[in-house]
Design a protein that fits this description.
Structural class: alpha/beta
Strand order of the largest sheet: 6-5-7-8-9
Number of strands: 9
Radius of gyration: 21 Å
Helix content: 55-70%
Distance between the termini: 12 Å
Largest sheet: 5 strands, parallel
Amino acid sequence: MLEVCAAIDSSGNLDLELVQIGDLARRVGVRVDTLRAWERRYGLLRPSRSAGGFRLYSSDDESVVRSMLAEIDRGYPASQAAKLALARSATRDSQAQQVDTAGTPDDSGRLESLRTQLSEALRRYDGSRAQELLDTVLAEFSLNAVLRDVVLRCLSDIGDAWARGDMTVAEEHFASQLIRERLLALARDWDRGRGPRAVLACPSGERHDIGLICFGIVLSRNGWRITFLGSDTPIDALTGAVSALEPDLVVMAATLEEWFVSMTSQLRALAAERVVVIAGSGATARVARATGATVLHDGPVEAALQIANRTP
C-alpha cells in the first residue's frame, strides 16, 4: 500500500509524497530486490522511516536511481554508475543551496537549450554530441520531461523541417534512427514484472513507431509489462500475439487513417474481445466508430500516464 507523508527534500522544498520501495520500483522500472541491493552495496538510496517503521523513499531517491540507470545505459558497470549518480546528486544539492537566494533555476529554458543543441547535432550527423546531450538531459531531468519536451519535440521539429524541404532524407533517417536506438535501450526489460500487459504495434504500412516507444517506456515505468511488435505489423501477426499473450490492453498507432481503415473488420473483431486503443494522427473518431476502439487523444507521455493512473 502506498504510504504518503510530508517531508523537506534536499533542496528545501516540501516533498509531499514518500513511497515504499515497491512503489519506487514501479516508477523507475527496477526490481525491488535490485533496489535493495543497490541501497545495501552502494548507499544509493537514503530512506526515511514512517511512524510504523517502514522505509520511505523520496523524489531525490527516484532521481538518483534514474541517474544511475542513465549511466548504466552509457555502458558503465553498476558500481561505477552508482558513484557517478551519487556524485551528480551531491552536485545538484550544492547548486540548489547556492541558488536559495537567487530564485529557482529556469528548467524550461535549460530544456529548450538542450533540445535545440540536440537538433543541431543531429542535423550535423554528430552522433557523439547527440548521445552526450541525451546523457545530460536524462541525468538532469525526469524521464517524462525528457521524452515529452526534448525527444518528441525534437522529432516534431525534424519532421517539420523535412516537410518544408529544409532537411534531407538522410538527415531525417540519421536522427530518427539514433533516437530510436537510444529509446529502445531505455526500454530494456520492459516486459518483466507482474503488472498488467500491453501489446503495442503499428499497422501494416506505418513505419513511424518512436511515439509508441515513448508511450511504452512511460507505461512500463508505471508497472506495466510491454510487448512491443513495432512498425509495419500485419494484423494477422498482431492477433496471433494477442491470442498467445491475452494482454490487458492493445495499442495501435498510425500517422494515417488509411492504415487503420485497411484493417477495419479485423480490428473490430479484436476490440470485441480485448481493450483496444488507437493513437496517432490517423486515429480518428470515424475509425473508432467503425472498429469499437478507443482513441487516445493526448501525446504519448500524457496518454500513458492516464492509463497508468486508471489501473486498479
